[in-house]
Amino acid sequence: MSATLFGSQLYGKLVPTGEVARLFTDSAEIRAMLIVLGALAKAEGAAGIIPEISAKAIHRASLELQVDPGGLAEATGANGVPVPALVAAFRDLMQAPEHAQYIHWGATSQDIMDTGLMLRLRQVLSHYEAGLDRVLTRLADLAEAHAELPMAARTYGQQATPTSFGAVVASWGWPLLDLRAETAGLRDRLCVSLSGAAGTASMLGPDPEALRAELSEALGLVDPKRSWHTDRAPVTKIAGWVARLVTAMGKIGEDLTALAATEVAEVTLGEAGASSTMPQKQNPVAPSVLSMLAHHGAGLQTTLMQAARHRHQRDGATWFTEWMVLPQLCLTGAAAIETCAPLLDGLAPRPEAMARNMSGALAAEALSFALAREMPRPEAQNAMKALARESAETGTDLIALAAERHPRIAPVDFAPPRLLGTAPAEARDFARAVRMQA
């Protein structure tokens, strides 16, 4: 088995990551760091920190030159960071030592790596937003179309009272809608890092704050107005958001796995997985993947938060841990979106199965309140518990049994469509909220 499913030729289609995968390659990281080095030189040239002619040459070269990741591997292994080897390779490729000497002037490896990471995370967010919009549109359509389709609500795995399929879909969608609304705020955490060797910006010219602001504007990132070498909030904020995303989609997976069970069969999933030996099997593969990704994301998030405690002004072990975990977490979020969208496209309720699975027992709560109009509430509850036991033992419909013992009860008043409460409104409210946010 491959070390990671995401890059596996065998398992990769099980956890598709779309365009996000290419943002976590060696080539993508080097390209992002070259962009940062070029923009830094241009800003330093404009500020008179380095010769402007050299700044222009470095900036132009940063957009044109290609650096082989393999050529940096040995030095990266020795140094623990790729920037020294990248800068050396950049200087060699420029073939203009009089200009190349000013590459990476006054910055530190973490400035270049963290800022390059922010550039890539900005693209990740864009892909997430597009995927979430697709998921939310489909959920809104399902919620609206089935706002009044009755089905059994279940608590503790037991049938409780009637709800509607549309309301169930809305319960999946509301957390995702909240997450989508937060993406603009996440961009406010995508900030430049430019603080120098120990976070003091001592070699970044007479006005390092102005230089940082200029670099931020050039790269389209936020100026944090401080050093954040050891404050990993710009990273952990996004990581926490991704963890919540996969948790919300894992909820969809859990519910669909249960609703597609043979004994329940209240939904069809479109495409399902086959067994190697049992022809009748229609395995809920995509819902199971969503559940798995939620488990994986929770573990990654925990590890990342443990790695957010840097000792002193920079800590190798915690930073290395972030490199191990953050790309995996971002790919986990991408895989959840890429899995959820087509799953929802093929999802359909089975009204006949929903009706078949609902019994008069779903009206027990409503019946107890009806009896409370004739007797004290505690007595009404005890009477309904006794009728529920009798119904279960004899197989008699609970509504019919209650009407027989209490003639004032009209069975038609306790049919599932009469007991949906706010479920239809919640489904329609969700659909409306999605369309208003679009």
From TrEMBL:
SUPFAM superfamilies: L-aspartase-like (SSF48557). Keywords: Isomerase. GO terms for molecular function: isomerase activity. Belongs to the class-II fumarase/aspartase family. It comes from Roseivivax halotolerans. This is 3-carboxy-cis,cis-muconate cycloisomerase. InterPro entries: AdenyloSucc_lyase_C (IPR019468), Fumarate_lyase_fam (IPR000362), Fumarate_lyase_N (IPR022761), L-Aspartase-like (IPR008948). It holds the Pfam family Lyase_1. Residues 359-431 form the Adenylosuccinate lyase C-terminal domain. It comes from the Bacteria. Transmembrane segments: none annotated. The keyword Isomerase applies.
